[in-house]
Amino acid sequence: MNKKKEVLISVILIAALLGILRILELNIKPTSQWAMLLTVLKKGSIYALVAVSMNLLNGFTGLFSLGQAGFMMIGAYTFGVLTIPPADREMVYMYYDGGIIKFAVPVVVGLLAAGAMAALFAFLIGLPVLRLKSDYLAIATLGFAEIMRALFQWDTLGPLTNGSNMIRNYPTFKTILFPFIVSGVCIAVIVLLINSTYGRAFKAIRDDEIAAEAMGINLAHHKRIAFTVSSFFAGVSGALLAMFQTNVQAKSFNSAMTYEILLIVVIGGIGSVTGSVISSFLFIASSEWLLRFLDEQHKIGDFTVPLLRSGFRKVVFAVIIMVIVLFFRQGIMGTREFSIGRLLERFGGKKKNGTEGGGKLQ
Amino acid sequence: MDMLSKNLPYLLAGISVGGQYALIAIGYTMVYGILRLINFAHGDIFMVAGLMMVYLSASLPMYLSIPLVILLTVLIGFLVERVAYKPLRQAPRMSVMISAIGVSYLLQNLALYITGGLAQQYPTIPWISDQITVFGASTKRVTVITPFLTIILVVLLVTLIKKTKIGMAMRAASKDFETSQLMGIKINNVISTTFIIGSFLAAVGSLLFFSNYTGVTPTIGTMPGLKAFVAAVFGGIGSIPGAVIGAFIIGICENLIMMLNQFVKVDISNFKDAFAFLLLIIILLFKPTGLFGEKQTDKV
User: Is residue B293 domain-resident?
Assistant: First the structure.
């Protein structure tokens, strides 16, 4: 399987995927029970981006950061605040005399600004915080996210962030293709970064900091790049999430959200991009859709199935996660990557003897 | 005098909540001292203790339900360690921390399922919930009792660690995990004891905490838990007196913020919770080992 052919097949598959998505979207009515599938796909694609961005830090650079929800919030707010049409501002900012920003930028600029703002905050907070090691870094970034959350709900910043009220009435996406394309492009950029010399340096830092430093890798510089880039994409995914939800409120970006993203990364396999993507869809699908039946009462004849009531789904879900964490520590993919070339080789019967297929994307 | 009676409640509340944080913080600092693990589930164990009190006191008299709550909390702490942390003893530290986050997620969802998401009214414990007047400021008796009870428990704990055999084993394990095993210390017993002590103190802390803040929700443990961890880091992780002092400082400072809020023009009450983290980032930058922490050197 040569490289050209693989790229060609990938392009065809991506086009086919987008086509199928569009057909699904046009044919599923909002009232049918399959409408949930579209929701899952949209939200899954958004979570895939933030999971991959977290994996870039935790899996590829070995920086255990728990600030992801905070950066998503910065992205979501930046996007929302910048793109509300001026005509609607009076209504959204009704407690703050229409806010201080009187203009609106196009959606694409808003997305980029969301990423840039998150990256800027990450750069600044990274200067002091990245000197910390492992669990201290985790708790400091978690704390940073909490401080940000308090700051965004601060009444004095109300003209900018609307205090503890919602940001709404900004443009949202009309088609399912939008989050898929944006997430896809961003993930592709992350993969390119991982495969570059920077990516190799990140992995060296993950495997052994001291050895990496001895080989001439500038630790502070590379950690800062990983942290800033990861936060940029967390910011973009925050903006996408804002578009998906149609309103943003700071209090929903809490530490539980970061934990969920972390668990997605763990389930997919720490250090595997495709693993994170697959597990995002699985995670969202099972938490939003597939396990829903656990929340409702069921009767078999006269027998009412015990335990099933609102909230049981989440308990079952948490137990499944614990089982994965304890017994399948590698997650779905471990550190391997899903590659089309290898898949074709396996099913095409052209099995070669040996290691040729291994590690195409790594 | 008017000034005093107006501001004293904040100071009292600060000392009281500081004592409650201290009781939780000890659990963090002891576990971290031995296992090098941030036990993210500790705050949720504190929450579970509160919930169990709500349900047990509904059907049992107070003199039975209080000891029972403490006993069950200790049992849960012990089981969490055995089920979720012990199998990962040889695994990388990150795996154990993720497991702790998983346990926290599980306990919160379980609580959400049982309570149905509604805040549960914490029962009034007789005597300690009574209103009393201190220097003209009206408050609950628990506010005054907490700091004294905390200090008594801490003195007992420090004696246990300094004077008894199991205490010596704990100190040995926190100094050098592997070597202490080679010296014949049954490490699993030591770790279990650590979790039992931590959960016991968290249960006592929850009795005191919820007598003041009466609504128990599934996520209520997160914030006190994180703050208690910050207190442990502030005091120097692994040091029990350090954790206690850190907890009192955080408790008092966040109530001072509420007090200041009366005098300044802008509303700063939002930053009550954020203060602890600001303190954390500052202390980690200037004195990463905390106030009383021992200096550690990395070996290749």
Answer: no
Residue A349: per-residue pLDDT = 52
- B300 and A CB contact within 8 Å: yes
Query: For position B10, which CATH number holds?
Result: 1.10.3470
* Sequence-distant (≥ 6) Cβ neighbours of residue B299 within 8 angstroms: none
pLDDT at A348 over 70: no
Domain span holding position A210? 37-254
| pLDDT, tens digit (0-9, with 9 covering 90-100), for B172-186 | 988 888 899 899 899
Containing A300, the helix (H) or strand (E) segment is: strand A299-300
DSSP assignment letter at A293: G
Picking from B251, B238, B178, the residue whose alpha carbon sits closest to that of residue B20 is: B251
CA-nearest residue to B277 within chain A is: A143
Q: What residue in A sits closest to B113 (Cα-Cα)?
A: A311
Domain hosting residue B203, numbered range:
2-286
**Cβ-based neighbours of A168, under 8 Å, separated by 6 or more:** A80, A84, A92, A246, A247, A248
Which of B31, B44, B96, B101 should one mutate to test binding to chain A, selecting the residue with the greatest count of A CBs within 10 A?
A: B101
Asked if residue B70 belongs to a domain, the reply is: yes
* pTM of the predicted structure, to 2 decimals: 0.87
Q: Environment class of residue B70 by beta-carbon count within 10 Å: exposed (0-12), middle (13-18) or buried (19+)?
A: buried
Interchain CB contact of B94 with A (< 8 Å): yes
Beta-carbon separation of B36 and A135 below 8 A: yes
pLDDT for res A356: 37
Range with top average pLDDT, A2-16, A41-55, B135-149, B281-295 = A41-55
Domain tally, chain B: 1
Distance (Å, whole) CA B9 – CA B16: 10
CA distance linking residue B287 with residue B295, whole number of Å:
10
Residues facing residue B216 across a β-bridge: B120
Residue B124's closest CA among B214, B218, B16, B50?
A: B214
Cβ-based contacts under 8 A for chains A and B: 130
β strands within B135-290, DSSP E = 137-140, 215-216
Q: Per the CB < 8 Å rule, is A154 touching B267?
A: yes
